[in-house]
Design goal:
The chain is an alpha/beta fold. The chain is built from 33 helices and 25 strands. The protein binds ligand F55. It comes from Reinekea thalattae.
């Protein structure tokens, strides 16, 4: 243990209480009698910052002295959630803080609830970035996260008459205790304008004359590794109007124009685009992408130059830039521009450095999610970058021609530029060509990247595409969110299990032990009771903790098939109405999901679930055997309450569509049984826990493909399956929406006529799988055994494992534990 860790371990509650009170008075200007829970939570954060910034200095000093190779994780999204509990745990101060607050007559849990979620992301991709930076700090890797300091994160969701309504997220309304502004590290980002070609004695060169400038202001959020030894930084850029902005010349009219320009500049970091899995193609989004990419690269180059001057050949030895999907892919063109135009390197040298420096993670195969930018928009916003992309492509197509001589079709297929009426740039192609490594996020996903998305790239570069299966941090997703289970584990396993999750495997022999089963299920029961209160508070629906808690929590998307779940609920409800004595295990179906604001079908599915819920929950004739709740405003902090209480984890995407999934890992880690398709990481979860400890069902990828080729006809299933037909007709009639018959018809219509994600094709298998869950749950001991085996077999889904694979396979990065100073 280091000195700091020893000091922390020796900290007494009374001493800690005095520190918090001192901050309450001198940092917050309040005092004990007056302070609200919010003020106390701020004082607690200020107290933690003493330790955090000491750790940050230590880490930075060590990293600078060791001239360490560093990874820069570029992501448009970081879905951090709350930081107070995780900082307390990672510093080893949680218990002492709890006792200290109790001395003060306060409940720590109440203070933790004061903190708004930092929701600077949409879903899996953004949360993955958050888990990954936790692991990078924990593993003492020299790493910086780069993103955007959105003023408004993902919208807050409300339901009005069952419909989703979006409200602005105001996470910084009252400031954030974690962020520090670093004006000394601000950057200028240029946009628009034109490119001039200058001919001189050395030939010709290009000069970009931009017509707009933005200032990028960094806000740093410390990322505390587990154990508190290393503290890394998440650097988020805020956009402001440029300094040189001409305030002197304005007159009465100019004043207003000057402000308009200022507002425009500040719009860039104003709000997170709430689309997942669709490419919005908006100019402002492109500017966001370039703004943060350019600011981050300038920051990286500044740091490099201050240590190594203009010896750019060292750049790729000391830096790696990881692209979290294609969203920051314009950074490839930006680094080329800087090296060629500004540092005057030869193209070939610059390209080698660039290609060596970048790596790209692909998160999706859905065609509608693959980003393209129109050439004409790029020519307007980033004219020089567009030229550079053309040149990258010209040289790439030469390589293609060498491999496949005179093959026009191949040229068109592989080209970074999509030809056609509206020419566009395919950002995934640019990312593959411009990177040293490309990775998928689960075995099956990587396989499909190789066979379906980029088969020719594999022929060109057989080693480039790798798999790194996703993971989640066991700190947040087990220790912190499930303190009761953590305590039970602590009674049997070394205290450092949150760092070495494989230690939980020591509990495998106890899975059959009746006493341990009883303790494990008692924890689950307590967690369910706690969730009962949350459900009551959020929806006013009363549910029983004796029922199966069946949970589907994730973004709302047709490919994730929340409507498959709904269809089964309708079928089950009909059976119950026909036969109220039907013998089923009581079940609570729990949903949490946000829909992209412009995604009609997704919003219709939310409305349908809410309307069906209202009818079912008020139908006394079914004796409370099923209940259905859709919790509003699903987010990280709500997930932390749901996951520990789940019995069943629904992961029912159409095979081949869910790249990985990470909620599946979190739920299994907390002892939920997966009800899932052969998709994404479900397949690897099955390998880890054993086929008998989860329920997989439905078509596999090749069966989906075969059905597509043979011509899928959902109408036939609708016509021939009496229960499906009845449920879909029921949904489109007036039963659930008497005031507006047909309100929910769009879903039935879609499923009967198109069913793009083959809900009806998988229905029969799904309902059988649901029945397997029902009979499994009745065998109390077998279920408990399976739940335990799930929880203790998740080591390979620890994000520390994922990050070590990135460090070894992609980044060539070594841990540098911070030395005491
Ligand atoms: C956000 C913005 C755009 Cl423009 C496109 C996609 C997204 C987004 O949020 N994607 C996303 O969350 N993808 C998910 O990434 C996870 C982490 O790899 C996977 O587990 C999950 O399967 C995938 O859908």
């Amino acid at each position: 243990m280091s000195q700091t860790q020893l000091a922390i371990a020796a900290m007494q509650p009374e001493e800690f209480r005095r520190k918090v009170v001192a901050h309450l008075r001198s940092t917050l200007g309040s005092f004990e009698e007056k302070a609200t829970a919010h003020t106390w939570s701020q004082a607690l954060a200020a107290t933690l910052n003493e330790y955090i910034y000491a750790g940050r200095s230590r880490t930075l000093k060590t990293q600078i002295e060791s001239q360490a190779r560093t990874v820069h994780y570029l992501s448009l999204e970081f879905l951090m959630g709350r930081l107070l509990a995780s900082n307390l745990h990672n510093l080893g101060l949680y218990q002492v803080a709890e006792q200290a607050m109790a001395l003060q007559g306060l409940e720590l849990a109440d203070l933790l609830e004061q903190e708004p979620d930092m929701a600077l992301g949409n879903g899996g991709l953004g949360r993955l970035a958050a888990c990954f930076i936790d692991s990078m700090a924990t593993l003492a890797l020299p790493a910086i996260g780069y993103g955007i300091h959105y003023e408004h994160g993902l919208f807050r969701q409300e339901f009005i008459k069952g419909r989703q309504v979006e409200r602005p997220d105001q996470w910084r309304e009252f400031g954030s205790p974690w962020e520090i502004c670093r004006p000394e590290s601000q950057q200028v980002v240029k946009l628009y304008g034109h490119v001039e070609t200058i001919h001189d004695q050395n030939g010709s060169r290009k000069v970009w004359h931009p017509s707009r400038m933005l200032r990028a202001i960094p806000w740093d959020i410390p990322i505390v590794g587990y154990g508190g030894q290393n503290v890394n930084i998440l650097r988020l850029w805020e956009s402001r109007a440029d300094h040189f902005f001409d305030w002197d010349v304005f007159n009465a009219g100019g004043y207003v124009d000057a402000y308009a320009e200022l507002v425009q500049a500040e719009t860039v970091s104003k709000v997170l685009y709430p689309n997942d899995e669709t490419d919005a193609g908006k100019e402002l989004r492109l500017i966001q992408q370039y703004f943060f990419s350019a600011a981050s690269i300038a920051d990286i180059l500044r740091r490099f130059e201050s240590a190594h001057g203009n010896d750019y050949h060292l750049f790729a030895t000391l830096n790696v830039l990881q692209l979290n999907d294609t969203h920051p892919a314009i950074a490839i063109a930006e680094l080329m521009r800087l090296l060629v135009d500004e540092k005057q390197l030869a193209w070939q040298e610059a390209w080698q450095i660039t290609q060596q420096s970048f790596a790209y993670t692909n998160h999706t195969l859905l065609p509608e999610a693959l980003e393209t930018w129109s050439v004409s928009l790029l020519q307007t916003v980033l004219p020089r970058h567009m030229e550079i992309i053309f040149e990258i492509n010209r040289r790439f197509l030469q390589q293609v021609d060498e491999r496949w001589p005179n093959d026009q079709q191949m040229q068109a297929k592989l080209s970074i530029i999509q030809e056609g009426e509206k020419k566009s740039v395919r950002m995934a192609q640019l990312s593959v060509v411009g990177s040293q490594r490309v990775n998928g996020v689960a075995k099956i996903h990587t396989q499909l990247i190789k066979t379906e998305l980029f088969p020719e790239m594999v022929q060109l570069w057989p080693e480039k595409i790798r798999n790194i299966t996703n993971g989640v941090t066991p700190r947040r997703w087990l220790k912190i969110c499930n303190p009761r289970l953590a305590e039970l584990i602590d009674q049997h396993v070394d205290a450092d299990w949150p760092r070495y999750l494989e230690k939980l495997e020591q509990l495998k022999p106890l899975a059959k032990d009746k006493d341990f089963q009883q303790k494990f299920m008692a924890v689950k029961q307590r967690n369910k009771q706690a969730l009962v209160a949350v459900i009551k508070q959020l929806t006013d629906v009363e549910v029983s903790a004796e029922a199966i808690f069946d949970v589907q929590i994730k973004r709302l998307h047709e490919y994730k098939r929340q409507h498959l779940n709904l269809l089964y609920i309708l079928v089950l409800y009909r059976r119950l109405l026909k036969n109220p004595a039907l013998d089923i295990c009581p079940r609570v179906f729990i949903f949490g999901a946000k829909a992209a604001p412009g995604y009609r079908m997704a919003k219709d599915i939310i409305l349908a679930i809410n309307r069906v819920a209202k009818v079912i929950n008020n139908d006394v004739s079914i004796g409370g055997k099923i209940k259905l709740v859709f919790l509003p405003n699903y987010r990280v902090s709500l997930a932390e309450k749901l996951i520990p209480a789940a019995d069943v984890s629904q992961q029912i995407s159409l095979a081949g569509k869910e790249a990985s999934g990470t909620g599946n890992m979190k739920l299994a880690m907390n002892g939920a049984i997966t009800l899932g398709t052969h998709d994404g990481a479900n397949i690897e979860i099955a390998e880890a826990v054993g086929e008998q400890n989860l329920v997989l069902f439905g078509m596999k990828v090749d069966e989906v493909k075969a059905l597509q080729h043979s011509g899928y006809a959902p109408q036939h299933i609708y016509q021939n399956n009496e229960e499906i037909k009845a449920a879909l007709d029921w949904l489109s009639g007036d039963f659930f929406t008497p005031e507006q018959p047909g309100l929910l018809a769009s879903i039935s219509k879609n499923l009967i006529n198109e069913d793009p994600f083959m809900v009806l094709a998988d229905f029969a298998a799904y309902q059988q799988a649901q029945q397997r869950i029902d009979s499994f749950y009745r065998q109390k001991s077998a279920w408990a055994e399976a739940a335990i085996l799930n929880a203790v077999s998740m080591a390979r889904f620890n994000s520390d494992r994922s990050i070590m694979e990135y460090a070894n396979d992609i980044w060539q990065l070594k841990p540098i534990p911070a030395a005491e100073c």
